[in-house]
């Protein structure tokens, strides 16, 4: 009951800055706090968004090209972006979804996208949590881009056990069979939206399935990218 009340209050009352509490003119994050957010690296691999010393793909993407074509990460997954993602996910701070969508539009996205496809949750997890944070970010984004919001082309059919501590081969095995698709995507250019990209194995498997259905391009937009291991 309290959680429901929280949700209703959050939805009805214009929020001050989520981080410092200062008035933010209807935005989730004030200008001063925004300037302090941990940005994406100045030079990032265009394919998987990890920091690189010079332009071009990182060694990992050169050696083992993932099924997706590119990744834009808005932020590094560090304080306080981790708190913002958590608040959207578990406390339904929907103003943050609009905020992330606005940052993505300012940042620039791959051209000629046909659809925005939020990373699906497993139905059991969706039922437990009540909403999919990626859908909430993708919705205003698709509207602003004037493209479709695609909610049925990719289905999560299996939950993915934790990926931490696994080797690349083990992670790939771990995500096999996580998704299914029965949609004809021939010639379509898909923007997949996910909140946090850690190893890229889940996004890689999603892209593999979308391309198997004929997708011409699969580009990723992630709110935050964790630094590469080691
Ligand atoms: Zn602030
Ligand atoms: Zn890379």
UniProtKB/TrEMBL annotation:
InterPro entries: ComF/GntX_DNA_util-trans, DZR_2, PRTase-like, PRTase_dom. It comes from the Bacteria. Coiled coil: none annotated. SUPFAM superfamilies: PRTase-like. Residues 8-62 form the Double zinc ribbon domain. Signal peptide: none annotated. Gene3D superfamilies: 3.40.50.2020. Residues 134-224 form the Phosphoribosyltransferase domain. Belongs to the ComF/GntX family. This is Competence protein F. It comes from Azoarcus sp. (strain BH72).
């Amino acid at each position: 009951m309290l959680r429901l009340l929280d949700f209703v209050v959050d939805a009805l009352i214009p929020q001050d800055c989520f981080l410092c509490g200062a008035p933010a003119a209807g935005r989730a994050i004030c200008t001063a706090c925004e300037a302090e957010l941990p940005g994406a690296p100045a030079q990032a691999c265009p394919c998987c968004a990890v920091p690189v010393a010079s332009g071009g793909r990182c060694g990992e993407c050169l050696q083992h090209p993932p099924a997706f074509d590119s990744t834009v990460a808005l932020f590094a997954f560090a304080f306080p972006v981790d708190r913002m993602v958590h608040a959207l996910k578990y406390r339904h701070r929907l103003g943050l979804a609009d905020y992330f969508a606005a940052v993505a539009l300012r940042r620039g996205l791959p051209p000629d996208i046909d659809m925005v496809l939020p990373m699906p949750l497993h139905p059991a997890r969706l039922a437990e949590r009540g909403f999919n944070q990626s859908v909430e970010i993708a919705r205003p984004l698709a509207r602003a881009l004037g493209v479709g919001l695609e909610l049925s082309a990719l289905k999560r059919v299996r939950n993915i056990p934790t990926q931490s501590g696994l080797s690349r081969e083990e992670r790939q095995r771990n995500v096999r069979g996580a998704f299914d698709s029965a949609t004809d995507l021939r010639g379509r250019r898909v923007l997949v939206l996910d909140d946090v990209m850690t190893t890229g194995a889940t996004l890689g498997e999603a892209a593999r399935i979308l391309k198997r259905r004929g997708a011409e391009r699969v580009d990723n937009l992630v709110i935050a990218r964790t630094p590469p291991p080691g």
